[in-house]
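Quarterly update from the structural biology core.
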Amino acid sequence: QVKLEESGGGSVQSGESLRLSCEVSGYTYNGRLLAWFRQAPGKQREGIASIDYFHDKTYADFVKGRFIISQDNAKNTLYLQINNLKPKDTAMYYCAATPARLRFKLAQNEYTYWGQGTQVNVTS
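Predicted structure, tokenized:
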């Protein structure tokens, strides 16, 4: 019943911006946590940011202000705004969900549901 579907990725030049979206179905009750992760070529998947139903947010240190997580609960949609993209941001971006209350909110092994990912390619 739970379904996550990302969109909004693409190929851009360094310095440009993207807004990724994640449609969430069957998992929109209050007691849930949503997050964005990414996996670059040759690297392990890493957490970017999380947000709960009441908009409490957690960001990874590497974000450095360029990533903004948000949601529209009425539309059951999660967003990730990425500004000033760099080649190092090239990766597959995933949204994920969990019913758990987490001490470390970007621990990927704690997330139960995942989307298929949307590819972001950034060139110089």
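The CA atoms of residues 8 and 20 lie 5 Å apart.
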